[in-house]
Amino acid sequence: MDSETQSYLPDGWAPRFFTVWGGQVFSLFGSALVQFALVWYLTQQTGSATVLAAATLAALLPQIVLGPFVGALVDRWNRRIVMILADGFIALVTLGLVILFAIGKIQIWHIYVVVALRSLGGAFQSPAMQASTSLMVPDKHLSRVAGMNQTLQGAINIIAPPTGALLMTTLPMQGILFIDITTAILAISPLFFIPIPQPVRMNGDKPMAEAEKSNFLQDVRAGLAYVGAWPGLMAILIMATMINFLLTPAGSLMPLLVTKHFGLGALQFGVMDSVWGFGVIAGGLILSIWGGFKSKIVTSLCGIIGIGLGILLVGMAPSNLFALALVGYLISGFTNPIANGPLFALIQSTVRPDMQGRVMSLIMSAAMAMSPLSLLVAGPISDWLGIRIWFWIGGSLTLLMGAGAFFVPAILNVEKNRNSEGLEMAEAQSGTLARGTVLK
User: Fold this and answer.
1) What is the DSSP letter of 192?
2) In this predicted model, which residue has the larger pLDDT, 320 or 147?
3) C-beta of residue 333 within 8 angstroms of C-beta of residue 276
């Protein structure tokens, strides 16, 4: 990590970081329970695919539309306070839903509003946590921490649905939702006692004086210009967007693939989900122990190739060879953290600390923006040419993009080509008054 970023690292980083991280684990699990419970409630009450799609859209839109602006605010504000307020806001919104269920006044539109507001809180919380990680963890451990995060996601994907299903047989809806409020308190509590380093906003290689600081819109433009003027980072953003476009429909079409192509039922669909989750856990554990290759981008590209290969195998499996589809989905799950973990670590270790909120938000919002569009395109194509066609398209193009990136110098050398004059000019033109070397 650059000496500029190293200066933010506190002594005894591990106990502090993992105490905060542990609180976030509880919060993520509580959120997963809420997601399962609300989806199941909507399914039972309406049985409407349109209602479920509308709820999904309500969850996506705040982060898609507001992502770049949220990132600028995260970089301007105290990130510890942002996480406290974001988690607290999510808990408060959920409490409103608890009350509505308890008094029997719940309406479907209430759930849409709550889902959108929870997504808004998450749009602040996630970039703040990701951007803070690089200030609390040494560079050499960032890939391992990213691997742990990926393992955690896989474990939650496996544990939360059956736990939610069990709780729904024993607790009323408001009881399950209240669990999320409790886990939010567990996430917030450590933040009152553990300081999170706040990056000093820079003017080139010097701290920026108060009078020099830009306004909010200049910060937004600076984030966009920062990514646009860094060829390797811009290429990674485009790749992330395209891969999300190609692979999002695979998850949505999986139930139809299992039932229509393989002629199987809900049990086998559940097995597919479990296999993917176990793959994510295994890949995340290996990444957390191994740490990846010396070059983070090489590790990530190998993971992207593996994801594409796995999805392609799922699509190629004949109707009498469900086991091949399981192997493909296992490979896809296993290589998912290998692709994503080092990518987050790369951004955390190369992007200037006071820019990380904006860059993280921009990448996440751009990638998510492709989800509604890809579903709109994939549905008609799959109806016209068959369910398997999208798995062939998505898998093969993802594989080719991962392999082709090895021949793109801007991507392959993204960890080394940070002294671009274009970055200096972009920041200066955007109002951040940057001069000289942007990142050493």
Assistant:
1) G
2) 320
3) yes
Q: Which residues contact 251 (CB under 8 A, 6 or more apart)?
A: none
103 vs 96, 98, 109, 250, 437, CA distance in Å? 11, 9, 16, 39, 60
Among candidates 30, 59, 54, 33, which has minimal Cα distance to 42? 54
Q: How many other CB atoms are found less than 10 A from the CB of residue 160?
A: 20
Residue type, 222: A
What value, to the nearest 5°, has the Cα angle with vertex 130 and ends 128 and 135? 90
Side-chain half-sphere of 46: how many Cα atoms within 13 Å? 18
Nearest C-alpha neighbor of 314 from the set 275, 344, 365: 275
The pLDDT score that the predictor gives to residue 7 is 46
pLDDT tens-digit profile of 238-262? 888 888 888 877 776 777 788 788 8
Of 315, 363, 333, 23, whose CA–CA distance to 157 is shortest?
Answer: 333
Query: Distance (Å, rounded) from C-alpha 283 to C-alpha 338?
Result: 6
- Please write the tens of the pLDDT for every residue from 164-198: 778 878 888 899 899 999 999 999 999 898 888 77
Query: Tokens 């070059």 — which residue?
Result: 295
Q: What is the CA radius of gyration of the chain?
A: 22
The string of pLDDT tens digits covering residues 299-315 is 999 999 999 999 999 99
Buried b (16+ CB within 10 A) or exposed e, 197-212: bbbebbbbeeebeeee
Cβ atoms within 10 A of the Cβ of 242, count? 16
Average pLDDT, the chain: 78
Cα gap 239→399, rounded to integer Å? 12
Q: How far apart are CA 92 and CA 388, in angstroms?
A: 43
3-197+206-429 folds as Growth Hormone; Chain: A; (1.20.1250)
Runs of H (alpha helix) within 229-355: 231-256, 266-290, 296-316, 322-350
**Interatomic CA distance for residues 406 and 402, integer angstroms:** 7
Distance CA 73, CA 256 (A): 41
Within 152-212, strands assigned E span: 202-203, 206-207
Instruction: Collapse the DSSP code of 394 into the 3-class scheme (helix H, G, I; strand E, B; otherwise coil) and give the result.
Output: helix
Single pTM value for the model: 0.65
